[in-house]
Amino acid sequence: MTTLPSGLPVVVDRAAPTPLAVQISAQLQAAVTGGALRAGDRLPSSRDLSATLGVSRTVVTNAYARLFAEGWLEGRHGSGTYVADVTPPPPLTPAKATEPDRGPGRPHARGSARADVPGTPERNRVSPRPLAAFGGLAAPTGLIDLQPGISWAEGIEPAVWRRAWRHAGTHLPSRWPDPHGLPELRAEIAAYLRRSRGLAVTPAHVLVTQGVSSGLALLADALLTHGDRAGIEEPGYATGREVLHRAGARIVPCRVDAHGIVPEELPGDLKLLYTTPAHQYPLGGRLPVNRRQALIAWARSTEALVVEDDYDSEFRYDVGPLPALHSMDPGVIVYLGTASKVLATAFGAGWLVAPPGLVDRLAALRPRIGTRIPEAVQHAVLALLRSGDLERHVRKMRLEYARRRAALVDGLTRADRDAANGHRTSARVPFRLLGDTAGLHVVLELPRDYPAERLVDAAAARGVAIYPLDRYFAGPPTMSGVILGYGTATLPQVRRAAAELAELLTSRPERDR
Ligand SMILES: Cc1ncc(COP(=O)(O)O)c(C=O)c1O
Asked: Taking CB atoms and a 6 Å cutoff, what residues make up the pocket around ligand 1?
């Protein structure tokens, strides 16, 4: 038996079938639930604990990673690993006390969501409030915003940020911008995509963009003529739809199911198809390999260009990565990536991967339409990639998002299980969580006859902003549900939101009591 500096006994049994990391994490978790370890207690470093227990450092790192992902531990910048505050959220506040301020972009009352917010939900986003501390509630009575699609910009280490911009500041602007993007950045992005996504690309395949929408708009400008038919997932990314529509394309909604796009149903006359195979937006499907093959075969036979939006593939939790669709046939797939999720939307950086001929054609269009990519941003991206800071940041945020996701999913499913097991006598709204293995959001699917706005309104009355799924449909919605983003809500906020939503879903409505 070994005693931690806090006085806590931890035992490892090498003869037991349970892996050592699981033994350690289970004992630490029991110590937290039993009260032997309290919120704010500092744990020994993995180096110290591995030395104390006589196990490898990887064992301890794995044990900590597991506890971290489940929300039992938290890291503080530069100062170690601490026990997180896992106390249950305080009793739910009465509706009136938490009535949120309904500013622009807030969820709307029933029936008004589409009418009040024309176009895309993404274009009407509320800007995230600055949150004082990593992990702290913004304000006791503030709205907890589960807006999807926004990353946690506050997670960027200020020192890393400064380093990137110091590097950018050492370069005077060029006389004239290279419309492909800086050559050294294209080389660095190609290397990043080879490392992180296994793409077989050279710098000549890479065009620097300001993000997915900027790449898509350029493609549409170069390749589509007025009235061309462009397929977009249904439900799908409203901004993508809007970009193609504004380029003069006729939008063809293409059905997705829990796995993603359904290739057998694709029409034969599309000029372009926009798709999110790694993590369908918003339903979260991961396109299985047989569908990938069918999609490629469809693209070859119809000569349609498939645009793969790989917007959040860096954030995957319980599942291994599927290769990018691009690797299966770089001739028919254009790949779009973005720094919006790995860093921040406000950064405005991204990349497009296509055959060199198409890259040159797109680059040639830029000076004609006056588009350029700010060089300072490009130098900053270059510094982040070269130093390894970007990948370190992604690893850190993957853990943070994993904890938030676990808190959200556990909070919702535990309450659901309790209700199903008869621990509650009240009525339940059956629901299903979709797409919880990756990204920064989950979809909570409701029964078809249960209007999502009812839950949106009830949640807003309890101080939680959630967003109805119907906004993601171009045509009449075929399912009911809400989208819950955990990119900008802190862990305690996510826990609180999950508890409020669980309460709404598992208890009878007021009027039935
Ligand atoms: C499906 C999808 N693609 C791409 C993006 C990011 O686009 P951009 O790189 O233009 O910021 C988002 C952000 O919300 C998204 O939801």
From this structure: 122, 149, 211-213, 237, 276, 281, 309, 311, 338, 340, 345, 350
How far apart are alpha carbons 326 and 299 in whole angstroms?
12
Which of 309, 313, 340 best tests ligand 1's pocket when mutated (most atoms within 8 Å of CB)? Answer: 340
Query: Which atom of ligand 1 is closest in space to residue 339's alpha carbon?
Result: 9
Give the ligand 1 atom nearest the CA of 338. Answer: 9
Instruction: Give the amino acid at 422.
Output: G
Q: Which of 147, 151, 208, 239 to mutate to test the pocket of ligand 1 (most atoms within 8 A of CB)?
A: 239
Q: How is residue 15 written in tokens?
A: 């003869």
Residue 457 CA, ligand 1 centroid: distance in Å: 26
Q: Which tokens hold the place of 149?
A: 């699609």
Residue ID of nearest Cα to ligand 1 atom 7: 212
Per-residue pLDDT, 50: 83
Atom of ligand 1 nearest to the CA of 215: 10
Flag residues of the chain having pLDDT under 70: 1-8, 33-34, 66-72, 74-79, 85-142, 415-416, 419-427, 508-513
**Which residues have a Cβ under 8 Å from the Cβ of 40 and sit 6 or more positions away?**
82, 83, 85
H or E segment and range at residue 336? strand 333-338
Q: Let me know if 175 is exposed, middle or buried by CB neighbors in 10 A (0-12, 13-18, 19+).
A: exposed
Task: Specify the DSSP element, H or E, that contains 453.
Answer: helix 452-461
Q: What does each C-alpha distance from 181 to 203, 222, 347 come to in angstroms?
A: 10, 17, 16
Sheet holding 80-83, edge to edge: 42-43, 80-83, 73-76
Q: How far is CA 413 from the centre of its chain?
A: 20
* CA 150 to ligand 1 centroid distance, Å: 9
- Rg (the chain; Cα; Å): 24
What does each C-alpha distance from 381 to 25, 311, 324, 375 come to in angstroms? Answer: 37, 17, 22, 10
Coil vs helix vs strand at 184: helix
pLDDT of amino acid 71: 57
Distance between Cα 496 and ligand 1 center (Å): 27
CA of 212 to the centre of ligand 1 (A): 6
pLDDT tens, position by position, 290-311:
999 999 999 999 999 999 999 9
Burial, 127: exposed, middle or buried (Cβ in 10 Å; 0-12, 13-18, 19+)?
A: exposed
How far apart, in whole angstroms, are the C-alpha atoms of residue 231 and residue 252?
A: 5
Q: 35: left (phi > 0), else alpha (psi -120 to 50), else beta?
A: left
Q: What is the pLDDT of residue 118?
A: 27
Closest residue by CA, ligand 1 atom 2: 311
Give the count of beta carbons closer than 10 Å to the beta carbon of residue 101: 8
Beta strands in 127-241 (DSSP E): 144-145, 206-209, 229-234
